[in-house]
Design a protein that fits this description.
Structural class: alpha+beta
CATH class: Alpha Beta
CATH topology: Nucleoside Triphosphate Pyrophosphohydrolase
CATH superfamily: Nucleoside Triphosphate Pyrophosphohydrolase
Order of helices and strands: EEEEEEHEEEHH
Oligomer: single chain
Strand content: 25-35%
Shape: globular
Number of domains: 1
CATH architecture: Alpha-Beta Complex
Length: 170
């Protein structure tokens, strides 16, 4: 079954219309919402996963997330995505909003970055939906190095500035 997205205007208000992923072409001034979860452990390392080779940006590393579905809030979407992609269940109160990025790419979207603090054993992760094949903890310096070496997906919208902000609020 194809994903159905709510369509938002340039001010992030729902328009009352929906889009079908990879079918509906969003018009100028129309957006959907994408979410990314930044998971830090007690050492302030970042959890990243390796994308399956059959996915866009296959074999590259990323912080997990995806598009929210029609009827979902941003927070509900990130909680669902982390459960589907990593098998990790977070409580809603564990999700801390970090940042919104308005992206004028195709399809246009608002990307909401959500922050989580949790020590997770890599061996306990389950890649339920097949989008990820491996995971690891990395320092911010290693993350930046991997990004500069084109090992991190180019759509990440997370770097040293966001990391420093995350450390202030976590």
């Amino acid at each position: 079954m194809p994903e159905l997205w709510d369509i938002y205007d340039e001010n992030k208000n729902k328009t009352g219309r929906t889009a079908i992923r990879d079918v509906t072409i969003l018009q100028k001034g129309e957006y959907h919402i994408v979410v990314t979860g930044i998971i830090l452990n007690s050492k302030n390392e970042i959890l990243i996963s390796k994308r399956a080779t059959n996915k866009k940006f296959g074999g590259m590393w990323e912080c997990n997330g995806g598009s929210i579905l029609a009827g979902e809030t941003s927070k509900e979407g990130i909680l669902r995505e982390l459960k589907e992609e990593l098998g990790v269940i977070f409580k809603p109160e564990e999700a801390i909003f970090l940042k919104e990025v308005k992206r004028e790419r195709v399809p246009q979207n608002f990307k909401d970055l959500w922050l989580f603090k949790k020590d997770i054993n890599i061996e306990d992760l389950t890649f339920l939906d097949g989008e990820a094949t491996a995971a690891k903890w990395v320092s911010i310096d290693e993350f930046i190095k991997m990004f500069n070496n084109n090992e991190i997906v180019p759509t990440v919208d997370f770097g040293r500035e966001e990391y420093e902000e995350a450390l202030k609020i976590i």
